[in-house]
Structure formats: C-alpha cells, structure tokens
Amino acid sequence: MRLLVLGGTKNLGRHVVEAALADGHEVTLFNRGLTNPGLFPSVERIVGERSDPGVLASGVWDAVIDMSGFLVRDIRLSLDVLRDRVGHYTFMSTIGVYASRTTPGMTESGELLAWPDGAPEDEFSMDLYGPSKARAELLLAEVLGERSAAVRSGFVVGPYNPDFGNWGEALATGKAMECAARPEQAIQYLDARDLAAFLVRLSGDGRGGAFNAVSGSMAMGDLAEAWRSVVPGSPAVDWDPPEDRFHLTHDGTFQLDNRKALAAGLVVRPAEESARACVEWIRAGNTPPPPPH
Hints:
The protein has 2 domains: about 1-155 and about 190-210, Rossmann fold; about 155-190 and about 215-250 and about 270-285, UDP-galactose 4-epimerase, domain 1. Helices cover about 30% and strands about 15% of the residues. It has helices at about 10-20, 70-80, 125-145, 165-175, 190-205, 220-230, 260-265, 270-285, and strands at about 1-5, 25-30, 45, 60-65, 85-95, 150-155, 155, 185, 190, 210, 220. The chain is built from 8 helices and 11 strands. The longest helix is centred in the middle third of the chain and has 19 residues, at about 125-145. The strands form 3 sheets. The protein has a 7-stranded parallel beta sheet with strand order 3-2-1-4-5-6-10, with helices on both faces. The model has no long low-confidence stretch (mean pLDDT about 95). By secondary structure, it is α/β, with parallel strands linked by helices. It comes from Kribbella ginsengisoli. This is SDR family oxidoreductase.
C-alpha cells in the first residue's frame, strides 16, 4: 500500500510509521520537517504546512492517515487536494467528540458535539478540540462517504506518549504512582502500538465509519495495580496527589462500547505489557512529553 501520513514524527505518529513500515507499506510523510527530522531516513518526505497542502497535488496514494488534523480549515484544504488522490482517508479523532460525558455503553452513533456559533475554523483552543474533531469527521464523511474512517481514542499510553507518563516515571524511579481519580472510577486506554496498528489496518482494509478505539472499561484501581505489578515492591498508589493528571470528572466518559473496533481488527494488549514498555523506555533515558492540556 502506498500510504501518506500527515504528521508522523512525534507521539502516536511515530508508532504509525513504524507499524506501516513493519507491514511492508511504502510510506510518504508530509509535515513541516521541524519535529524529529532525522527519523525514518529511508522514507520519502514532503515538507510543507497544513495550511498550504498544494505540494501534495503531484502525488497519488492508496490511503492517507491524518495525524495532524486539528483545525477544520486544514481538513477542508487537505480534502480539496487529496479527495481524488487517495483511495481512503483515516482521520485520527477523539472520544472527546461525544456530546454526553455521562452515558455508559455509548456506541459510535452517540450524539456528537455541535459546532459553536461563530467559532473560527482557523484557530485552535482546547475548548474547540472536541467540536473541531467532530466537525472534521462530518466534513470527511460528507465528501468521501465510506472512503473515510474516524478513529476515536482516549488515553494513549506507551513510549513517545504523554498519557500515564507520570506513572511510568514513578515506577522507573521507585516513587509512588499518583492518581487523583477514585479507585472505583471507570477508565479506558489503549497502547499506542495497538492504536497505530489499527489505524494502518483500517487504511489497508478501506473500512469506513467511526470507531471507538479504546480498551474495555475497568476500574482505575485495577489498572493502577496492573501497572504496579511490573515493578515488584513499588510503593502504594497515592490517591490524593497535589496535581490531577487524569481529569476524570464524568463517570460515563470511559465506558464506551468498543465492539465495532474489535470486530474491525483492534487488538488490545494486557495493561501490564504497556506498563512494562513504558518503564523500560524511561529507564533507557527517555522522558515522556508533557500532556497537551
């Protein structure tokens, strides 16, 4: 498969490129060339801005995976150029597109956030993050129909990624893991490697529609103990830390139905494997990036 990746040199995007190359796909990267420019030296690179994607008009690809689509304006511009140059468009979205934060068992048909009246399509803020992703999903579906897929994820864990990075650092350095959520509070996550493999698989299969790319729902206390188990003798979890790194304010947010994604090939590895990989990566001298919020 000839695969175009928009982004691809940081966090989850690195895993996407690694997964695509491991599967034998021919990868082209389109980004500004500023973040980790030395990565993937054998891969074709096209340097440019999302706000000016005209340079892509000379190429044709079987699929594109959009890892850097945050502004609705940029999605419109990308569509103008790529709609007849790619067979399939996989969009990295978020579970933050849902209007409800309190409905357990929600499927991909759940109501999405509305676009605020008068909001700018060319400016980014965390307040517009969910609405922007929802608006982009609808735009892609309108233009491409079943040739587009929207992958909705939540916490993404593992090397290169910020989520649960504080847990990995604590385990790697013999400190107590901190968590401001209640031990019984529901949580869903996904290993970055599993999410990357799913993105590549959807692109290769040409599947359309939205997918809740999350693990099964579990109690935060159970997840914390799974992480602690990879470093025997770790201190007990601190459930009353000075900083809240999870912001789990609504109980329904992490009780999404993931059956559609599982049926489409999503694989969810055990939490212990994700924790072990994170700890080993940190012990090798790496530092998790700061969370975006």
